[in-house]
Amino acid sequence: MIDFAKLLNEEQCEASTANDGPLLVLAAAGTGKTRTLVYRVAYLMEKGVDPENILLLTFTNRAASEMLERAREISGGSVGELWSGTFHHICNRFLRRFGHKLAYKPWFRIMDQDDSRSLIDSCIKECVSDVKEFPKKDIVGSWISEAANSSKDIDEIVEDAAGIPDDMKGDAVEVVNLYGKRKREMEVMDFDDLLVNGLRLLKECPDVRAHYQKQFKHVLVDEYQDTNMIQAEIVDILAAGNRNVMAVGDDFQCIYSWRGADFKNIMNFPDRWQDCKIVKLEQNYRSVPEILDVANESIKGNPEQFQKTLRPTRPSRNKPQVCFVRDGDEQSMSVLSMIHRYQEDGYKLNEMVILYRAHFHSIEMQMILGRNGIPYSITSGISVFEQAHIKDVLSLLQLIINKRDFIAFSRLICLLSGVGKKTAERLWKKLGGSFELGDADQREILLKSLRPAALKQWEAINDFLEISYAQSVSEVGGEVIKGFCEAFYKDHLYRTYDNAEKREEDIDELALQIMKAHKLEDFLQEVALLTNIDHQFDVDARSDEDKIHLSTVHQAKGLEWPVVFIVWTAEGMFPSARAIGENEDDREERRLFYVAVTRAMNELALMSPRMRRMRDGGVLYCKPSRFIQEIPPEMVRTRHGMQY
Length: 644
Description:
This protein is of the alpha/beta class. The chain is 50% helix and 12% strand. It contains 29 helices and 19 strands. The chain has a 7-stranded parallel β-sheet. Strands 3-2-6-7-1-8 form a 6-stranded parallel β-sheet, with helices on both faces. Strand 17 (611-613) and strand 18 form a beta hairpin. The longest helix is centred in the last third of the chain and has 20 residues, at 477-496.
């Protein structure tokens, strides 16, 4: 038996051991929300709830894995059948089993962002006569995603879109509709389709809805403040059968509205779930009292929120610093000087982070750190599965799984000399809209359709495929990649990239991972899920190397460091003038500042330049951020200029 009262504080224990029924846990920053969720799982299982009757929804793969591992340690390894993962991961599981009810095959492929962009580009060229004047594929992609995540009609979104002439709005709708049609023809879904179709499945198929409502006796949701309309509706439907829903989140940390998160979901939760119990976690284990004072002060003025006050558990240390400097250069020099001082105090570089509101705020810091030999890492970048050489070799495997996948075919065939997208489209039509790699007749058609330069390269691939299809290629994907590289792709690597050796090592490692997978199809699905989730949420800022971290505040959410610098805390920069708009609605910017402050454990420095150099050589004078001005002077140490 677990002694919950001994292992948890009073607030955590109340939430973890609450009776059945709807429960909203308002977990302020650093108050142990993950611990609370994990012990809730343990409590339910101790009460006799079967793990397969528990659904734990998270926003990152890392969070799901961490919670499962901790729950396993607490309960002795009896959580194997518990359903856990991101909303997209869970909807993918729904659709693999019941997608046929929406006319999808179980082996549908999930497109990543690059694939979606490529297909949108193809649709634009097919529908639009004057492509140069038409919005680019990324803009069209943002319309499609907004329509999916907001449940708005695409006509409405296009009508409100800025920068598109009225005479092109009809073409825009046609492009989006063709994109949807092409996806259905190829039996693929983009990342947003997983949520849209997962919700459709629950709403349109009463038997599927009843099945999962019966199975999931308890639905637990992490980071509930980040849910969009579709995700909140999925939760409401799944939990409707038993009314055992636990939403854990913090309205103070709702900072992703630009990505579709709807602040109203958490605020209206008690209205949607009558007799909802509310538990507030306010006991903070992360930050020293002086930092919490600043955090509490910065957020208390926001209207329409559940009022919470962070209470410290750690002893007092230094007050946060507010550093007024001349400009970005002096700001960079000041931060550099403080970094050296903190190193002298015993802090490692990887225990420090420089946070900023927007990426361009970091340019001066990157330059000064580079000049002074201070190693740093930027917590953004490209996933290995999004890199061109990995996507190239995976296209072969994707085509093995789905012969109607034009995107995979196009990527593969465009690797050949002299073959572009138009040629790929012509070949695809000649092949009848599908390409079975194991079909010798179709391969012969392709051989006869290629020009000499491409023909010689494809002959090597064709010979390799002929040998490979004597085996079950869908079961030996790693060997297929190795054979493909030996037959063709290795030469392509060394003709194309100056770091071909490193890329070849990446491919070797990929082949090894595929060999470890149970099925090639499962591996490709997981790659697509990981790529999309990691791109949106799961940026891991931690590293064993001793480097200082540079990060936007958005990417730093959920992380913590002993020493935190927040740069460019000036009006127009933080808060962002663009974000607050003409109506001066600074509520989300204030929440963003709160998130930034609560990343700090021991030391916090707020940097506020008085002027900003402009590209034309002029100067823009800056006022200190309103968030700094609102802090009572006695809560901080104020410095001016280079006083280090």
